[in-house]
């Protein structure tokens, strides 16, 4: 690992200023992914700007009923938070489906959003990878890609985003709060991560020097159920092959709101807008869910060795939606 | 915390707004003024240590190489195997992924800090979980054992504090202690691999020390 400077930021402004002074720096929060990538040589920062002690470690209920989660709230604490467990079970379940107890104790909300793909070509500096080294090619396109994307990929990158948490945030219409040299702004969680297109080196909409300061979950109708389900190669401590987060509202016997996002199948959490639109006004039956999810997945373009993911995410999604429908109170 | 203090802010200082951003680097120990090392104070098993730490040093290497505490093991060195698990401020973590400079002011407990040496009540001075691992034959080669034990202690504390796991009933009331069934223990210890396959006995050893 190359030597680097270490700077502990005392405020957001100091963090941004430190970045301006050292544009080759990286922000450090929990560091569970960053340190790994530094050991692999994928990341070679000139400095680490430690933001882990900034006062961003609280979960607050806002007057309008929304919930603001600070960027340095640990994944384990967020999953256990009583309000999250009660009102946003999809988020708690998604967090608990990710990583291990040790990692969740260290990994932060902001860091979870900014973690990099676990594509083996990205993590191996001896292999071509357009995300790590633009223009070098994509080793996975014709290589080992069983775990890779079936939706929204490009000829330049077929990686998936590894986060479970981000899938729940996308389905729940959360917003991501950012702060940087240009000031503060917010971005919808469902649009925070990008599709690879011609620039797979850009995972998210974040600008150089910006950092995630928090996530805001909108007020949800009390009792509205949400769920997260993940299919993986073993029962614990494995990344998603396919997952679904969903929230469903039924009024007068018809779907009045559906938020659906797929994980493990694209470069970002895949918000299933076409399926959601198809479900609006429909009777919440398994047949309706199958039809809507199939419509969404008509856009799937599986690679040589991962066509199984299309069926897998379909079945996971339909099961999640049918399970929610059986628990959703009909708001007559 | 008693013991040597340096100019570097402690965690409490920061929480109370007394910290200022500063390069923590002071060059001590490394090439003077190279900006690549930092004076860091970490309490390990109750003893404060102040060291000039290369910024690249992770906690695991500080424990093993600088302090001679070789209980925490280097398995994968990338957060996948759990052999390096220790407790930082009471929480279990993968010490191979934590930059030591970022832990300034923290208190670390390693497997060496568990036994109290008191041979009075149960005779051997071991921590009850260490005793249970012996009684249940919960290891073969023993390489993963320090990490398993520290991880189990962390997991028991988390369950007592009401932290759910992936196998906890989502309808269970928040804030109440979670009973550690075998399924719960297995899920909560999934971040600790055992190549010898001692898992069934590890689960039994953990069950033995549950309140």
General description of the model:
- The complex is a heterodimer of chains A (332) and B (211).
- Chain A is an alpha+beta fold and 332 residues long.
- Among the domains of chain A are: 5-52, Uridine Diphospho-n-acetylenolpyruvylglucosamine Reductase, domain 2; 226-327, 2-Layer Sandwich (Enolase-like, domain 1).
- Chain A has helices spanning 12-21, 34-40, 75-80, 82-87, 89-96, 101-106, 109-114, 120-123, 165-171, 189-192, 273-279, 286-297, 308-327, and strands at 5-8, 25-28, 47-50, 59-61, 67-70, 175-180, 183-188, 211-217, 226-231, 242-251, 254-263, 270-271.
- The N and C termini of chain A lie far apart (62 Å).
- The mean pLDDT of chain A is 96.
- Chain B folds into 2 domains: 11-113, Beta-grasp domain (Ubiquitin-like (UB roll)); 128-208, DNA polymerase, domain 1 (Orthogonal Bundle).
- Chain B is built from 6 helices and 6 strands, in the order αβββαβββαααα.
- A 5-stranded mixed β-sheet of chain B has the order 3-2-6-4-5, sandwiched between helices.
- In chain B, helix 3 crosses helix 6.
- Chain B starts with 10 loop residues before the first helix and ends with a helix.
- At the A-B interface, strand 1, helix 1, helix 2, helix 3 and helix 4 of A face helix 1, strand 1, strand 5, helix 4 and helix 5 of B.
- Strand 1 (5-8) of chain A pairs antiparallel with strand 1 of chain B, so a sheet runs across the interface.
